[in-house]
Amino acid sequence: VIICDEMKNKYIDLIEQTFEFPQDEFTVEDNELYFHEVPLMDIIKQYGTPLKISYLPKISQQINRAKRMFNVAMAKVDYKGSYNYCYCTKSSHFSFVLEEALKNEINLETSSAYDIHIINALYESGLINKDIYIVCNGFKRPQYVENIANLINSGFTNTIPVIDNKQELDLLDIIEKPCQIGIRIAAEEEPKFDFYTSRLGIRYNDIIPYYKERIKNNKKVKLKMLHFFINTGIKDTAYYWNELHKCIQVYCELKKLAPELDSLNIGGGFPIKNSLAFDYDYEYMTEEIVAQIKNVCNANGVEEPNIFTEFGSFTVGESGAALFSIINQKQQNDRESWYMIDSSFMTTLPDIWGINQRYPLLAINNWDKEYQRVFLGGLSCDSEDYYSGEAHSNAVFLPKLTPGETQYIGFFHTGAYQESLGGFGGIQHCLIPAPKHIIIDRDKSDNEYYTRLFAKEQSYRSMLRILGY
Asked: How far apart are CA 1 and CA 233, in angstroms?
């Protein structure tokens, strides 16, 4: 008699055979998932689903990780300039995100007129002082410039409006005090893009003439920063290194004409983990960027610049999660089994349908059950409201449903952009309400986690108010 080992067809077997598991933020105990050592089933029992989570300690961990990597990279090559970490408020404007990030001596980057009101609120709350760097990006309408002017005139001397187009300098005339400015380079986009050159910034070839004509003898402004932004982020590709090299060359040429120029802003941040199979060498990329800046500057006989980075998704993305219940299973044909979630992807995680974004997706319970391939459907009437594949594969596998027992799932690292793109607190597609949102933090005295409710599930009354009923 041949006794076969039990077939490895449980969900936990699938995950352990496919990935290195457990991972830093994901562990399993008693067939239930823990996120940063927080038992998610306990959270669900307390708050229900659908549910958005923000795990605050991850924000500080990411900031300090980047600072450490850049400081180590600079020490290795005896880099003379300083490193300045900026958080892009557009990634998540929530007060709890800014409060956590600002515990770590960072600077801020803004994108629009209303962003400046957040800066004022942070100052009034004592969370920032007037020495902080405020890098003001984006196309500047008169109201944005007026708000920037009010900041600078009130003593925020390290506010740096970054010139996005040649006409913006004229708008800055309303600033009473001498003002530091930056210039944004219009980088060339990746070959697969619909267009060749970014709509943002000033063309490479125009920057030197523009400085000579408009800035060099302008007593009201002083050129502080050259800003370089790659839309697809910092990646180990020939395209990225080529654009970085061109940017450093422009910096060196400009520095010879503008001795007051002392900072290079390498906007476009580090990627975040979008799959359990995610593989990215952050240390290598950091060391290579720092070494290349130093080498090109040395070759040109130019002092290396202070480095600014603008990390939005990297700061806040991995702190977020969205938890759902599977409320129904539909077998639509012999091959396609649909699990219906108790929310909508289009409103809760709009990047899923907007840019085909993928997130780590895991079952929260029933890791000892058999798994099957499924498609995930949202509650809206829209055919685009679905999720059918993960970053490492074009399929989704989840435990088979057990009658009488609810299956819960979680999408992780969803903390950047989803609330603002989804219209948090506004009108949702098919009037499906925005989920309840909770904050998870840890007590410094005993490291125990605790939760608090940030927002209740959106009510029909709030929607009717907006709609004028």
From this structure: 59
